[in-house]
Amino acid sequence: MKNLTIIIMSISLIAFVIGCDSGTEKVKESQKKSTIQQTEKALPKETVKYYTEDEVLQARKKFKVDVVEFDASQEYGTEFPYSDRVRLRITNKSDIVLPYLTILTKRFDRQGKMIGSSRAPSVPTSNIKPGESFEYEYYPKGHLPYVKKIEVEIEHMINDDEKKFFQELNTQIPKNK
DSSP strand E in 112-165: where? Predict the structure, then answer.
């Protein structure tokens, strides 16, 4: 019994010493963090400027989108509503690199009558610098029979209720220095 008491007391003493030592490390680490935070507060902060919504809307007007080819003869996808395959050439004629571009896909029948449209999820355009073009394939939902022509446009008149569907209008885009 005496040996058991000695062993328990020894283990308790070791645990106490280890606990005290790790506490010292925690205090030192806390002091380091405090010093770093004080230094960061003292340094002048560089203010990031972002493009305004109006500047983004103006940049959208200077993008050009052309349909290179499309396939509306079959249903793409695994569930309704199915999609069509459309290959675009997107040209950035603005001074801004937009991370996204939301486009409207219109479908026409043989007589040239518009029979449907869909707004595509925002197309990633962060790799299209001013003056450059890029080909992009996407699959807009809304496949319909008898489609003979597909056009794509960049909407310029966007009401407030629809702005939530335009990712480029809901993202802060930093201005380059």
Answer: 114-119, 123-124, 133-138, 149-153
